[in-house]
Amino acid sequence: MNYFEKYLEIFPKLKEIAEKIWKYVDEIKKENVLELAEKIENKILEFGAKPAFPVNIGINNIAAHYTPENEEKIKENDILKIDFGVHINGFIFDTAKTYGNNEVVKAAKEAFEECLKEVKEGVRVKIFGDICEEVAKKYGLKPVRNLGGHGLGYYLVHTEPTILNGKNNSEEVLKKGMPIALEVFITNGQGKVEDSYPSTIFEIINPQKIGMLRMHREIIEYAYKNFYTLPFCKRWLYKKFSKSSVDFAILQAKKIGIIKEYPVLKEVKNSIVAQFETTLIVE
Fold first, then answer.
1. In the chain, which stretches have pLDDT less than 70?
2. pLDDT of residue 75
3. Which of 157, 199, 213, 241 has a beta carbon 3.0–4.6 Å from 261's, enabling a disulfide?
4. Which is it for strands 193-204 and 156-164: parallel, antiparallel or unpaired?
């Protein structure tokens, strides 16, 4: 049995859990980013899965790759993006939604819904970029052209195909049985995100080098044992190890090339970004 076939077996359970999480999130108060992220992560565990990555909370100009470390308040008029993933034994469901009421959110939702209609075997992935461009233009907005959807692999959040939001010349084609995370980002800014630091999310990419660590090796060993090749964050490690030890271990592991960091992605003009995403199996 190949990966697609195994994924197909577990997909209904993953989808069910994701839907339960969204129902929960829709009903709770969204006042504090750290509390919100941890509530979602705990609820995923409660439903019998694990977080595929730290819950991303993006407010206004933050498009992706930010997981809260501090108790920042969510203001009434903030455009709030929540992006979470659930996994069971390495099989992943990735999903996101934007809360707020403005033209950017409306356009992103419309573009997302139009893209959903085109997901089928044999479709070239560049069609999704065309749709995002057309819908964004109708609203006087822009797609975030250096972001988009992606394939999902075994213990891997990002694999081929890359499904860009803007017009592109990709010749990649959707294959039957392929799990994809269809993801749309629209902005009232320039249409591009840039890296911002410090990073809050990390991923082990060279576990064979863990033995090279001279100090606090047990922290990175623990991260690999518990998260394998999925993204993780420092606050997860702070629950077991001291903050100073975790920070030092992460710094050294980065230098050696054991882990990579995911910089926080912000719109280049600090403009609003809206996001919608779900996971599907290509039919």
1. none
2. 94
3. 199
4. unpaired
Other CB atoms within 10 Å distance of the CB of residue 157: 20
Pick the CATH number of 197-264 from 3.30.70.100, 1.10.10.10, 3.40.50.10170, 1.10.260.40: 1.10.10.10
Amino acid present at 144: V
pLDDT of residue 257: 97
The residue written with tokens 């919608």 in the block is 276
* Locus of tokens 């959110």: 105
Domain ranges for the chain, please list them.
3-194+265-281, 197-264
Cα–Cα nearest to 45, from 59, 71, 24: 24
* Residues with catalytic roles: 83, 94, 150, 158, 183, 277
Torsion of CA 166, 169, 170, 176, to 10 degrees: 90
Alpha-carbon distance of 28 to 180, in angstroms, equals 28
